[in-house]
Design goal:
This protein is mainly beta. The longest helix is centred in the first third of the chain and has 37 residues.
Length: 291
């Protein structure tokens, strides 16, 4: 073999060795990543369960016990501001009667000033700062399912507390913006000794419908492939050298809440499935711990 051919052959040997090392390293990295993924998998057995469809919305805390102070005459000035505490018979403003005489406007109860009179809106509003309600907007698709007295849950994130309440009022006139219409629903609740204040933000949950004895899985268990939905059978764990799609269980889906979904298929109850990692989602109002 000539010297030139020998050098060329030696170069090919070195290149082949380098490629072999790279391939082996890449395979090892792939195997390690695959093992870490498998170690992080969760498995579960499909069981018969219940899903409740809920209306979820946020709003502001207002007082459920208010009084209006009106007067017959021309408003002159206010002597209080929104947020001021007053006692019954305290002077809160002045007005002129038809004879031009100046009269005092006085509070008709103890409470908190939540609206100050003006020339355009001649009335004061005094609110009980210890009686609360939450006003939320419910869509036209759900408003007909809500009735007065229906149980509700209120969550106030500022103090991380959940309260039991009920629907005390339901608006009949919609608030329309574009093609979207909502209706005001008022939920009364007892805050106990918790430090709740007027104007705080809150979230409400009202159960609209309940479906029982259905096959239920977490939403993150679903796999979408080529426009269809599947679950991944736990049998794949014994055959991880094969493609996951060989172990897909075809399903159709039914009702769902923000955590779980109904799956429909042949013999699903009792089957063990895999929940792949890093596919979960969060909802801004009620976490599982705040239900």
């Amino acid at each position: 073999m000539s010297k030139r051919k020998g050098k060329k052959f030696k170069g090919w040997l070195i290149a082949g060795a380098v490629i072999g090392v790279l391939v082996l390293a890449g395979y090892q990295i792939f195997q390690n990543a695959n093992r870490r993924m498998i170690d992080n998998l969760k498995t579960m057995e499909i069981e018969s369960g219940t899903i409740s469809l809920e209306a979820l919305a946020s709003g502001k805390i207002t007082s459920s016990d208010t009084s209006e102070v009106t007067f017959n005459g021309t408003f002159r000035r206010s002597t209080v501001n929104v947020g001021d505490s007053v006692r019954r018979n305290d002077k809160i403003g002045e007005y002129l009667n038809n004879m031009g005489q100046l009269f005092a406007i006085r509070a008709n109860r103890d409470g908190l000033i939540t609206q100050v009179a003006s020339a355009a809106l001649p009335k004061f509003v005094i609110s009980n700062p210890n009686r609360f309600q939450l006003e939320i907007q419910i869509t036209e698709r759900d408003i007909y399912k809500i009735v007065i007295g229906q149980p509700a849950t209120v969550y106030i994130s500022a103090i991380n507390q959940t309260f039991t309440g009920e629907v005390v009022n339901k608006g009949s006139l919609g608030n329309t913006a574009g093609d979207f219409t909502t209706y005001t629903v008022t939920i009364g609740f007892d805050h106990g000794e918790e430090p709740v204040y007027l104007g705080m933000s809150g979230s409400a949950k009202i159960v609209l419908e309940t479906f029982e004895n259905i096959a239920v899985v977490p939403v993150e268990a679903l796999i979408t492939f080529e426009g269809k939905r599947y679950l991944l059978s736990a049998d794949w764990l014994d055959n991880t050298n094969l493609p996951q799609r060989d172990f897909y269980i075809p399903v159709t889906t039914g009702v769902a809440d923000i955590y779980d979904i109904e799956v429909i298929g042949s013999g699903l109850i009792g089957k063990k499935i895999i929940i792949l990692p890093n596919t979960g989602s969060n909802f801004p109002f009620f976490a599982r711990g705040n239900q």
